[in-house]
């Protein structure tokens, strides 16, 4: 089965504390407040809409946020308050120069091959207006290199049993993992993933090669510089003018 579907949604929702979402939403509001281009801002891989719903309902981005999601299960369980379209990151269903901005959380853009990652960023650049902004969040490559293996088992509030193990290969920059969720009714959901984590210099080169110019790099939601202790790598990149 697909990893980014029912398995992903059921196994991650219990860990998405409301206060974390509130902080992430506030960060995104600050990023896009005062953005020069007018028009919509797209949540790339919006899932059930935990960012898109509050951003579109109130605050400086109200009425401007659109969700994009390929997984039908996630779309069918999305929160109310924002419009969404079903579509593929590798072929965005938007007109050229039609978007003021876009954002992607939890390494959403990098669950494909290196070639496809370039295509995704080219698609984003195609759809952004000049001066449009992309904000992407991922995990620092160095952090995974220091802790390449992970495994855990946990009981979820609904009685489901979650098991996961992963191994980061620093040579390829890919974190390979497998997750299994045993539901209270005995049904078992399982799937594998491989997510690419780029060293910052390599990520900057990738962005620049697709017409996106990095504006800032943050190591967390307070806007602090990236450091060896950072748990986040957040990059803001602007479409070059001309």
UniProtKB/TrEMBL annotation:
It comes from the Bacteria. GO terms for molecular function: methyltransferase activity. Keywords: Methyltransferase, Transferase. GO terms for biological process: methylation. InterPro entries: Methyltransf_25 (IPR041698), SAM-dependent_MTases_sf (IPR029063). It comes from Hyalangium rubrum. Residues 164-175 have a biased composition (Basic and acidic residues). Residues 150-179 are annotated as: Disordered. This is Class I SAM-dependent methyltransferase. Residues 41-132 form the Methyltransferase domain. Pfam families: Methyltransf_25. The lineage of its organism: Bacteria, Pseudomonadati, Myxococcota, Myxococcia, Myxococcales. Its EC number is 2.1.-.-.
